[in-house]
Amino acid sequence: MSVIVAAVVGTAVKHTPRVLVGSGLLGLAVVLAAVNLRPAVTSVGAVLDEMRDSLGATSTWAGALTTAPGLCFAAAGSAAPWVAKRIGVAGAVGAALALLTGGLILRVLDGQLVVLGGTLVATAGIALANVLIPVVVKESFTARIGLMTGLYTGALQAGGALGSAVTPPLATALGGWRQGLAAWAALAGLALIVWLAVARTRPGVPSGEGSPESTGKSLLRNKLAWIVTLFFGLQACLAYIVMGWLPQVFIDAGVSRGDAGLLLGLVSILGLPVSLIVPPLAARRGGQSWWILLLGVFGFAGVLGVMLAPAAAPVLWSVLLGLGMSVFSLALTTIALRARTGGDTARLSGMAQGIGYLLAALGPFLFGLLHDLTGGWTVPFVLLLAAVVGQMVFGFLAGRPRYI
Fold this sequence. Notes:
Elements: H1 2-14, H2 24-35, H3 39-46, H4 48-55, H5 59-78, H6 80-87, H7 89-106, H8 112-140, H9 145-174, H10 177-201, H11 223-252, H12 257-283, H13 289-308, H14 314-325, H15 328-337, H16 342-374, H17 378-398
Helix pairs in contact: 1-7, 2-9, 2-10, 3-9, 5-8, 5-16, 6-7, 6-16, 7-8, 7-10, 8-15, 8-16, 9-10, 9-12, 9-15, 11-12, 11-15, 11-16, 11-17, 12-14, 12-15, 13-14, 13-17, 15-16, 16-17
């Protein structure tokens, strides 16, 4: 793995960092990279019981394995602008895909600590790519930011769904959970190969730290940067709570376990068409505030429905939640549109996703804690409704046409 990373970094250092030309091949590389940024996480849940039995692991270990990615997104994502500054965005994305590929291979080679360590390596690569691909979209697809953001977020969601749906049959066909998880390294390796080919054959104009230079001012003192960060964090908090707790809420309300799983799948899949349609439309206008507010209203209605009468219309509540959670695509769009330069986009993306995913990791924990303390779902859902209102407020402000 280290050899691959060194090769990627070496290539980036040898050549002056450049803005990649926004070609169809680069668009394919972005989409292929995005498909790989969720299966490393969603594939684990699909075979977690088999992993625990095979490794003799405890519930504490399983909890650490499922919680670590969110924390790693926060920590490693904050380092992405620093990495891009030194080896260029193209080289940094290549290094991220190399880390992802190597981590996916490493985590199936041995016992509990190796599985956990490999997962951390893989998610560190995901965190870097999460932050830097919006920079590629900003620099290389300036006239098509909405379209490329839609394709990117659609590919993210499709990859996440594939990870949870395809891993069990892969494990059965290939002979076990190790082989089922390892298969995703092949897809990540393909994305790495395609990316390296694009980075070598499609250089653009020199860009230094970004095209043009970053302003260099600290975003921690920038009001708009904090607005974008809180918008991103609150929408991610909603998504993580829904993905982690919605099936259990439905089951407690009398919905069968199988149907509860299907309802969560419906929530997830709805984000795909919305991500392909809404960002291009929203990006054509000066601001995105009303689109963000509209999707927030859907999310609020879905949360309220599940809170008051979960078994009355679970399909309707799931559709509303799916529409509301698709605001993720606009959260990424605002990151690209609220910065003037590639360098500032990298710093804003690092801040928004670094702090935002930390909030997202805390959300499910607080939701579960409030459920344990109160013995019901009403108080946790009041917290969730407050988070959705905050998302709408900060999202409306983030969608206005201004720059950090």
